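Dear colleague,

Following up on Tuesday's group meeting, I ran the structure prediction for the two-component complex that the binding team flagged. I've pasted the input sequences exactly as they went in, so you can double-check that nothing got truncated or mislabelled along the way. The structure tokens for the whole assembly follow below. Feel free to forward this to whoever is handling the docking comparison.

Inputs:
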Amino acid sequence: MTATAANSAALAAKPQTLWSTAWRQFRRNRLAAACLWIIVIYVGIWLYAESVYWTAYLRDVVPSYKVTDFDARNAAPSLRHWLGTDFTGRDNVAQLIQGVRIAFEIAILSSAILIPLGFLLGALAGYFGRWVDNAIIWLYSVVDSVPSILSIISISYVVGRGMKGIVIGMGLVAWVGLCRLIRGEYLKHKQRAYVAAARALGAGHLTVMLRHIAPNVLHIVIITFTLLFPRFILTEVILSYLGVGIANEPSWGVMINDAKQRLWLGVWWELGGATAAMFFLVLALNIVGDALRDALDPKLKTAEGSAT
Amino acid sequence: MVYYGEGGDIKGFDPVKASDTETAAQVCKVYEGLLEYDYLVRPYRVVPRLAVAMPDISPDGLTYTFRIKKGVRFQDDPCFPDGKGRELVADDFIYAFKRVMDAKTLSTGSWIFAEHVVGVDEWAKASEDQSKPTDYSRPIAGFEAPDRHTLRIRVTKPYPQLLWVLTMQYAFATPREAVEHYKDDFLNHPVGTGPYRLKEWRRNYRMEYERNPTFHGQRYPAEGEPGDREKGLLEDAGKPLPIIDRVILYNVREYYTRWQMFLAGQIYSAGISKDYFNKVINQDLDLTPEMSRLGIKLHKTPEMDVFYIGFNWEDPVVGGGKTLEEAARHRKLRQAFACAINQKQLSEFNNGRVTPASGPITPGIAGYDPARQYPWRFNLDLARELLAEAGYPDGKDARTGQRLRLTLDMGGAGDAEMRQMGQLMVDFARAIGIELTMNFSLQAEHWRKLEHKESQLFTSGWVMDYPDAQNVLQLWYGPNESPGVNHCNYKNPEFDKLYQRILTMQESPERTALSQQMVDVMLADCPCAFLYHRLLYGLMQPWVANFKPHDFPYPNTKFYRVKPH
């Protein structure tokens, strides 16, 4: 009786999915959980910044963060302007908040290009092998052999500067890592029994690739997305700092570029503010990304652990 | 005596390619031309350099005969037999002039002779044939050497600017042996007659010059303008040049580093960045006590330049317009935009280092009048009124209700000051309801866009090549449209007719009046919104003597002296 009752209790409990196990493991990592909160705060700021931008856009008025006050330019921090004002008297905190919007928009839009591209090419290469694999390996080797910043700058020359150039540039350059991982997973999965079974039941290539194998490799996409997110942000900042990125909207890179000249005069708050905003977000994303990888793909962790 | 300074990014030492000020300053240390500007006398005048005297000009103004100094030698160099520099002859100038006109050298200076000198255009055309090397033995009728030391230049119509352009680096004597010996590497091996020779050049880092031992001799001028003697500028009168034995120049791109090097006394001069201005210059626009204590000297001089925002005449929104009605509307739009630019704020942004421009003619040029009022000076009420008349009340298209969106192309991508300036323009346009988008490019890309007429609005500027209004007015002469220098692609037959008249006239009050008439014609059409002329604020170490600000300062290092310190 006892044994039966225990069995039925086990049967009544929820099944342990990959996601629920991962979530439990992720929560055990306190640092990662704290970082997740930081990211949630940034997401909140991002949504607020979007609302400010879109409200002004739809009402066809000048957004508050662009309103200038020339007489109050280059002001020091005060209760009204916590991080002082810039060269046209705009509030630096408002600029910083809009910088979050630009960082998120760029990271998300670039991912929207990168993920389908990397996933599709990786899946095709891994699943079909032979000449398809060779062609795709050749393609990503070529893309990967050019320094990414140079490629992005070149692409932005062709498609146009600013947000569009950065997004398309990063999307077309950064897919290689994801493509390699997905290719490896497809190579492995296509040998599995469930794939053979699906084929035996008459499933077509496309169905096997997308309905049977894809759900089993989706966690790779999530891990890659989390780890690439900070890279996108840093690349945007570097490009804007170099003057080939964002020009008409606030950006952390632009703020740092503006602030560096005045650092000599003891004006540390502009540079400090933008750097801190970027630092905490990038750090939190990296830690969460690592924790997600550990939680979702324990084998990857082991493999890396033994390799190092 | 060693002199340390700062040299910029340079293209090399080929005179025919020295289109920018940094390159020109280096080329002028090694090479020389027939004429040069007087160092001390103002207003500017040209004096003979490799010529014995000023040229004999025929009564019809079409033939210039120069006698060239005898005994002048090129510096010793392995390109000559036995490494000994040979004597300069008239043919060296003809060879140099041909190189300027040769399409294969990609010279940026062919404009100095094109359409002016007899036979140059046909010669230049023939040089475009890429299938064979350019035939330098083929004569150009307008350049003749009747004997070894006589050079005759014949022009098709009077060309009073010829004497000015002959001071430019494009017209410097070049030995054929060096070009043929070094071939493509000639860019890195200057061989001239000038006061210095290049000892070492580490690209983008350091340049070192030493006194040219075979320099033919030039003496420090004995005549200056009133006040020069009191300033000690004539103390070295009559002394042989160059005074400094070695010149070492560093290329330091980062302003902060340059500034620290200046404060440490490692380089002789420094400009002042906008952000450092208040640390260095006080409310009275003089040096702060901290700087004065160091003995640093401040030079404030208006520069011969003008900066503006151009409108592309071929643009469907801001351009010249296809019908009379459209032309009138577009004109009002351009005028409205110009009226929205707050020149006072621009000046404050630049810490007062610029003066508002009222037109194209720069300070120091006949025809410049500081009291003249710019018709499209900052006036928001007028700007809004004109904008409404142009069909955009409150910045919205009256027909569609859409906001007017314009794009401003700017060069200098990566330059924080440039971007901040663009931001100011965006604010100015926004004040009258126009949404302006900045579009940054690297300088080379910016020029390419202008040359291909791809911009709608663009920032540009002009630094005078010689002190004559014609030099800047050419920017709006119809036939000079892009890829020529008229990047606004402005066309007005009345303006063009007047331009053709002043082109052949000698300087006179009548010519100045015509130049002003041209300015009036152009300002009414408003093909560009004028911004400012720069004021040069230069800092100089106390150990530099004989420095006098000059608008064409390229060969002037030879006059400087380093005091013991």
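Residues 1-11, 302-308 of chain A have pLDDT under 50 and may be disordered.

Cheers,
M.
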